[in-house]
Amino acid sequence: MKRRLQWAVVLLSFSLILSSCQMKRIINDNGFIQTITVDKTDQPDIYRFGIMFPDPEKGSTKNRISLLYESENLPIALSHFQFKTRYSLVVGQLRNVIISRELAEEVGLNKLIQALLYHPKFPLTTRIMIHDGKASEYLKLSEDLTDYHLANLILKLQDEYRTGTNTLFNFVRNELEPGIDPILLQSTINEGSANINGVRLFKKDKSVGRLEEHEFPYILMFRNPKVTVSLDIPKEYLPTDQNFIVDNAIVKRHIRVQRVKPIPKVDIHFTIFGPLVSPINELTANSNNITEAMIEKAIEQDLNHVVDKLQSLQADSIGIGTFVRNKMSFEEWDEEEWREMFQKADIRCHVRFTLENKL
User: Fold this and answer.
1) In angstroms, rounded to a whole number, what is the distance separating the alpha carbons of residues 165 and 58?
2) Cα separation of 109 and 182, whole Å?
3) Alpha-carbon distance 286 to 346, whole Å?
């Protein structure tokens, strides 16, 4: 009886070892896609798809495999990639979808995104961004691409601004929600390294313009009732010869719709609380003369400048339409008519700033 028990233990252990080896072999046969790139081609409704995944056999994050294929949609491209590799490609680990600016402006993102959403294992938390150039340039970068430089950079931006604006879920939600348009970060590649150089503005699913990188905190202030940001205060508004920063400013936003028709009148009130710091850690002779009123004027002018830019593009990235829609009956709301109303609307920003520290 004792010997039989020993043999049972041996057989059980052997079966566990075999199953674990089989599991390891199956995992090693999977190529976990980290990045998908999409570019426009000269043929209508045909796109150039690229994929990148670490080589499962090499075991090093610096060894990766990248492929390009022209197709009408992603599922067809993935089927081609499956035939071209000896691995089973998995999209569940996908971190980045990079789309060229040319495609976003001329074609739009709806057709591409719908194909991605219908894939049963496609993660909605995937980061999506617009690239100022050919998106396939990312497949040529020599750096670690398994959670590569650009992804880390976006994570830092999300940590700093406490926002998740660059996920596929948020883009689709804003594109479908009446009264607000999506935004996406725009990337560029300089000397072999990826960087963020602004924010792409969308009118529905098509890109219509860009905000500069320093304007990104302002669009976050518009879109969130409460947010923490850092704001640059140019020296032109101050009695000093250097710029200052309102660091880790706590911003609360309140939108009041004063009138809906014929021309909407909207007041946006911001209360801001934070310390004023010098980026070079030096105070000049006139630093003590900086007042809260000067800071309020600087921020207010920058906010109104962003509003003017959005209105000229008819891109309601702020979401003013959602507040105006709540003041209208269901029958009155017309999204296309709202774009004309938004462009002509009287929208004014008002800032109340409280200095946390005294220089």
Assistant:
1) 35
2) 11
3) 37
**What spatial distance separates the first Cα and last Cα of the chain, rounded to whole Å?**
86
* DSSP E strands, the chain: 30-32, 35-40, 47-54, 64-71, 88-90, 96-100, 127-131, 183-190, 193-203, 206-211, 226-233, 244-259, 265-274, 276-277, 346-355
Tens digits of per-residue pLDDT, 150-196?
566 666 665 655 556 678 888 888 888 888 899 998 888 887 777 78
Asked if residues 278 and 287 have their Cβ atoms less than 8 Å apart, the reply is yes
Long-range CB contacts (within 8 A, 24+) of 194-200: 194/138, 194/141, 194/148, 194/149, 194/150, 194/153, 195/153, 196/153, 196/154, 196/157, 197/132, 200/101, 200/104, 200/130
The residue to which tokens 């008519």 are assigned:
337
Tokens 């960087």 — which residue?
195
Alpha helices by DSSP H, listed for 29-117, are 74-84, 101-106, 110-117
Structure tokens at 296: 């309020």
* pLDDT, average across residues 59-72: 75
**In the block, residue with structure tokens 């499962």:** 56
Residue 171 is predicted with a pLDDT of 85
Kind of pairing between the strands at 244-259 and 226-233: antiparallel
Higher pLDDT among residues 270 and 248, named by residue: 270
Furthest-apart CA pair in the chain: how many Å? 94
Residue reference for tokens 């052997």 = 14
Determine the pLDDT at residue 25. Answer: 40
Q: What is the percent of the chain where pLDDT is above 70?
A: 80
d(CA 141, CA 144): 8
Cα separation, 82 vs 75, in Å, equals: 11
* Model confidence at 148: pLDDT above 90: no
Q: How far apart are CA 257 and CA 317, in angstroms?
A: 17
pTM, full prediction:
0.82
CA gap 175, 195 in Å, rounded: 25
